[in-house]
Amino acid sequence: MITSTPTASATADFLQLAHRADLGVVTARWTRPTTSAELRAGYQEMLRFATACNSCCRWLIDARRRVQVDARDVHWLTEVFYPTLRQHLHRRAYLAFLVAPYQLDHVQDDTLPPLPHTHGDNCSLNQFTEEGEAVRWLTAQN
Prior knowledge:
Distance between the termini: 21 Å
Low-confidence stretches: 1-8
Strand content: 15-25%
Structural class: alpha/beta
Oligomer: single chain
Number of strands: 7
Shape: globular
Mean pLDDT: 85
Strand order of the largest sheet: 1-2-3-4-5-7-6
Order of helices and strands: EEEHEHEHEEH
């Protein structure tokens, strides 16, 4: 069963959000490459949506249609966004990034932490090329 709150199910044309209440997972699917402003707005919308979904702390982020993230956006995610997750969700967040296999060849970016990665007490990040594997990892997290 997929449910969504009436206030957030899509952000413009670049992000779709859904909540699997039975699994306790919020799914965010980037539908196209985004600008820096769109990326940041999308992550803020993910947080608002997850908070509205009973502070859901397990997120599946489908990044297969996103091409690249600018180093400034990585800095924003790691230094600004990730540190706020615990204060909004009141527990550690788990973010599973779903990527296409070809994207793994281009991950040799020094701005990205190697995955899996734990960002302090705020969140844990991992990446997968298969959605089932990502969901299994997420649902195994407490």
